Amino acid sequence: MPATVCVETLRKKLKKFEIDLDEDIVAITTDGASVMVKTGSLVPVFQQLCYAHSLQLGILDVLYKKNESIRQEPIDDDILDNSEAESNDNDGRPNISENSGFTVEVVSFATEGELIPDFKDIINKVRKIVRMFKCSPTKNDVLQKYVKNEFGRKIE
Description:
This protein is α+β, with helices and mostly antiparallel strands. It has three domains: 3-49, no CATH class; 67-110, no CATH class; 117-151, no CATH class. The protein has five helices and six strands. It has a two-stranded parallel sheet. A two-stranded antiparallel ribbon has the order 3-6. α1 (3-16) packs across α2 (34-42) and α4 (117-135) packs across α5.
């Protein structure tokens, strides 16, 4: 939803509890999505962006390769209206002629899967140790002694 709709929805929801966004709310916490940043700029309160979300995105940027790919795709038939660039087929569906020249450039970033080589070995070692403790009741019992000392109770 657009930021303006988000603000209006927020106002309506708060009004159900007899809370006024302008007078009763001092601050809001949101993630860093552009629509939420814009929402924060539209309301007269302090906005704090979520540090945990920012930290997660930062870690992904550092640990994983970004496989940027750019491809050009012709614009879908549904987007263009009946114009001179179109002609009708035998089945009645419009065809976009190759001369229309309309294409969309699609940029996609893949951050899943491939770790940056500098971190790959250490991340794999940490994952192996975590699996070892997670899957072994005996090793987990040893670890629970330290957990109990730290937190005062056993944590599953």
